[in-house]
Amino acid sequence: MDEDNSSPFRRMSSRTRKVAPRMVAALANSDNRAQAALARLEALENDNAGMETIEINEDDDTSLDDEDQVYMHKRQSKGTKRKTRQAKALENARKAPRTFAELLHEVFRLMSTLFGSVLAIFTWFSNVYSQSE
């Protein structure tokens, strides 16, 4: 991209490229550029460190060869995932202490849901029983 092998019909941007002074100094020679590229590659490989190769060792007479491998993905801890402000606020609201009235309201809501389910099951059984007679 540093070379100017463009045609005369190519549009050029009038936007100036702003680069931090330390970055200009760091990328001045090819050795530093290669080192930065390797650092980026290593960081990318570390991001995918959750992938792990596990060999299958079965004693059964199956068609699997010893060379067959399975890739398993480790679950990352939930703490590493970034959260939006709204998600943080909702989580904090759930953790906040509730009043007795709020707890009582939730208990009655759950009881009414349970009662409705039991009533529906009872009605269904009574209909099935009455049809069988």
Characterize the structure shown.
The protein has a domain at 97-133. 51% of the residues lie in helices and 8% in strands. The protein is elongated, with a radius of gyration of 32 Å. It is mainly alpha-helical. The termini are far apart. Strands 1-2 form a two-stranded antiparallel ribbon. The model has no long low-confidence stretch (mean pLDDT 75).
First and last CA, distance: 86 Å
> Major beta sheet, specifics?
2 strands, antiparallel
Order of helices and strands: HHEEHH
Taking strands numbered 1, 2, ... along the chain, how are they ordered across the largest sheet? 1-2
Strand content: 5-15%
Count of β-strands: 2
Sequence stretches where pLDDT stays below 50 over 5 or more residues: none
| Principal-axis shape | elongated
Question: What class do helices, strands and sheet pairing give?
Answer: mainly alpha
Computed over alpha carbons, the radius of gyration is 32 Å
Mean pLDDT figure: 75
Q: Counting H and I runs of at least 4 residues, what is the number of helices?
A: 4
Helix content: 40-55%
Topology:
Blueprint: H1 21-26, H2 30-47, E1 51-55, E2 69-73, H3 85-95, H4 100-132
Antiparallel strand pairs: 1-2
Key terms:
133 residues, membrane, 2 strands, Vps71/ZNHIT1, mainly alpha, two-stranded antiparallel sheet, 51% helix, coiled coil, zinc, transmembrane
